[in-house]
Amino acid sequence: MVESSGNQDSPLMNGNTPILGLDVWEHAYYLRYQNRRPEYINAFYNVVNWDEVSRRYQAALA
């Protein structure tokens, strides 16, 4: 499931098990990317540890 949360809410607050999180509030990227949010998102995917994401996904399924 893909979940978007507002304000400072977290998937943990609903009892969900997050396997990957991306902060897209401006404070997360503005100093380096200014208003180029898509560039920030692309850079994020280049540093994700996909083996860890897979491990967390498998653990969530168990």
Automatic annotation (TrEMBL):
Stretches that traverse the bilayer: none
GO MF term list: metal ion binding; superoxide dismutase activity
Superkingdom assignment: Bacteria
Any single Pfam family the record assigns to this protein: Sod_Fe_C
Cellular component GO terms held in the UniProt record: cytoplasm
Domain Manganese/iron superoxide dismutase C-terminal: residue ranges: 3-56
Record-given protein name: Acetyltransferase
